[in-house]
Amino acid sequence: MKKPSASYPKNGEIFIADLNPSFGREIHKKRPVLVISNNVLNQVLPTVIVIPFSSIIPQFIGPDIVKINKQKGLNKQSTIIVNQLRSIDKERLVKKVGKLSKTNSQEVEEAIKIVLDLN
């Protein structure tokens, strides 16, 4: 592992990320993502684990989708598509735009447990 970085993406922060190119049904283009990997790994690894946001609010919201109200870093109501979580290189992170609220963070944690069958 490399030396820890003083400036690194932190768990719960929202970044704009360039998710192109993508394949098949993977979410693509520049969009907000939520960093969910832990801060110890975020300091030393060249990658982070993220979940993309979408501005499309589906009619049915299943356990893999968390509805997020407009807040710092999100200029409109959005959803976090937990089943699209993935590891990306930090080079894909364009800029930090905010931090997810504590309430929404807890909702995302619960959705991750469901999607990854961690209960």
TrEMBL record:
Belongs to the PemK/MazF family. Its EC number is 3.1.-.-. GO terms for biological process: mRNA catabolic process; rRNA catabolic process. This is mRNA interferase. Pfam families: PemK_toxin (PF02452). Keywords: Endonuclease, Hydrolase, Nuclease. The keyword Hydrolase applies. InterPro entries: PemK-like, Plasmid_toxin/cell-grow_inhib. The keyword Ribosomal protein does not apply. GO terms for molecular function: DNA binding; hydrolase activity; RNA endonuclease activity. Toxic component of a type II toxin-antitoxin (TA) system. It comes from Candidatus Daviesbacteria bacterium GW2011_GWA2_40_9.
